[in-house]
Design goal:
The protein has 14 helices and 4 strands. The chain is an all-alpha fold. The chain folds into 3 domains: 194 residues, Cytochrome c-like domain (Cytochrome Bc1 Complex, Chain D, domain 2, Orthogonal Bundle); 45 residues, no CATH class; 125 residues, Orthogonal Bundle (Cytochrome Bc1 Complex, Chain D, domain 2), CATH 1.10.760. The strands form 2 sheets. Strands 1-2 form a two-stranded parallel ribbon. The longest helix has 16 residues. The N terminus is likely disordered.
């Protein structure tokens, strides 16, 4: 009788195959921006122990907060710069580190600080030696939904933007070569770069790290975001909601969805003024959505509002980048999210309050040859204007918990 054929024992799967390929995270969670646990300057030992965890190096699958989540398909993460926990933490350190500037007095955060809405509460940014430019500091949050950066879009990516100020003589006043050498000479930084990037410390990787950190800064759900699902349900099922008992019996899932939306909105309420402002904001009467659209309430495009165009030598904005006449005096649309925290306003910081901004639009901006067609005189009452301000204030959500002080020693 023939012997049975030997049975092959399956080879065990490679250890790497049993490991997750990505890590799912919710943007805004403390684990992303809360820093390496501990107090005081970061030691090499602390950094090394933290980096030894494999999950710190897994590419992240990110989930946006309520409201912003509608823009999931517009997330901008370059294929050659995936987000990881380790890279976010490295970028956080660099963002708050004044040693990137020529005299170690200015960091990215000096013009984009969490305490000032990731902008700066002065009319213009202030750089090395107290120098100022001629533009207000744009915010550094919700950049994960944005490509081109700066008011004029001269940086094609967040990575490019991140390293621009380092070499700007009136911002951080350094050179890229000196900044790279400074970082390389700090052991805690050198260790992280060597663990995260195959080619270690260079200016491109400094930009990649800072950009990755900035992509992790997002606005949390606002009263507007909690009210929007409720308002949509009330509009779609207005007749059904007149008899809640029947609605519950006939459409139990929709009923539960409605109750959950109502409770969430009641816990994070919009004022009646803000609700009126919402209706006005999204109406043709006010015309705000000609520019402020989408989940981040900006079209990420460039428009001439007439701001500063009456000056003897006006800032030409996007025109200086494209040299196209249509872009003369045009600047990028800022987000309405958390705008109540980011005064002053406009590219030149000329408007101190949201009420002033509304007045500017109501009067139709300042006439000039390339004024945007969307800018026109508006027929708004004083109550309308107050309601628009209330709505914009209701677009305020919490920022992620942020460690600002723990840097490599």
């Amino acid at each position: 009788m023939p012997e049975p054929a030997p049975t092959e024992t399956p080879e065990p799967a490679a250890a790497a195959d049993s490991q997750p390929k990505t890590l799912k995270v919710a943007l805004g969670s403390p684990e992303l921006t809360g820093g390496i646990p501990g107090e005081g300057p970061l030691t090499v030992e602390q950094i090394s122990a933290w980096l030894d965890h494999p999950d710190k190096h897994l590419p992240l699958e990110v989930e946006l907060p309520l409201g912003l989540s509608l823009g999931a398909s517009a997330i901008k993460i370059p294929a050659d710069n995936p987000m990881t926990l380790a890279k976010i933490e490295l970028g956080r350190q660099l963002y708050f580190d004044k040693r990137l500037s020529a005299d170690a007095t200015v960091s990215c955060a000096d013009c984009h600080h969490p305490d000032e809405g990731y902008g700066r509460a002065t009319q213009f940014g202030v750089g090395i030696g107290g120098q100022t430019g001629n533009r207000n500091s744009p915010v550094s949050y919700n950049r994960i939904l944005s490509d081109a950066q700066f008011w004029d879009g001269r940086a094609g990516s967040l990575e490019e933007q991140a390293v621009g100020p380092i070499a700007n003589p009136i911002e951080m006043g350094n050179t890229h070569d000196v900044a790279v050498e400074t970082v390389r000479n700090i052991e805690g930084y050198r260790l992280q770069f060597e663990k995260i990037f195959s080619d270690g410390v260079n200016i491109d990787n400094i930009g990649r790290a800072i950009a990755t950190f900035e992509r992790a800064i997002v606005t949390g759900p606002s009263p507007f975001d909690y009210y929007e699902p409720l308002a949509n349900l009330e509009k779609a099922f207005a007749a059904d909601l007149e008899d809640l008992d029947s609605f519950k019996e006939e459409s139990p899932e929709l009923y539960e969805k409605y109750i959950a939306a109502r409770e969430a909105s009641e816990a994070n309420p919009m004022s009646e003024s803000a609700k009126r402002g919402r209706e006005l904001f999204f109406s043709q009467k006010a015309g705000c959505t000609a520019c402020h659209v989408g989940p981040n309430l900006t079209d990420e495009k460039y428009h001439n509002l007439g701001v500063g165009m009456d000056a003897a030598e006006p800032d030409l904005g996007r025109f200086a980048v494209t040299n196209e006449e249509k872009d003369r005096g045009a600047f990028k649309t800022p987000t309405i999210r958390n705008v109540a925290l980011t005064a002053p306003y406009m590219h030149d910081g000329s408007q101190k309050t949201l009420a002033e901004v509304v007045e500017w639009y109501a009067k139709g901006g300042h006439p000039n040859p390339t004024l945007s067609e969307a800018v026109r005189k508006l027929d708004l009452t004083d109550q309308d204007k107050a309601d628009l301000v209330a709505f914009m204030e209701a677009c305020t959500g919490e920022f992620p918990p942020m460690e600002t002080g723990r840097l490599p020693e």
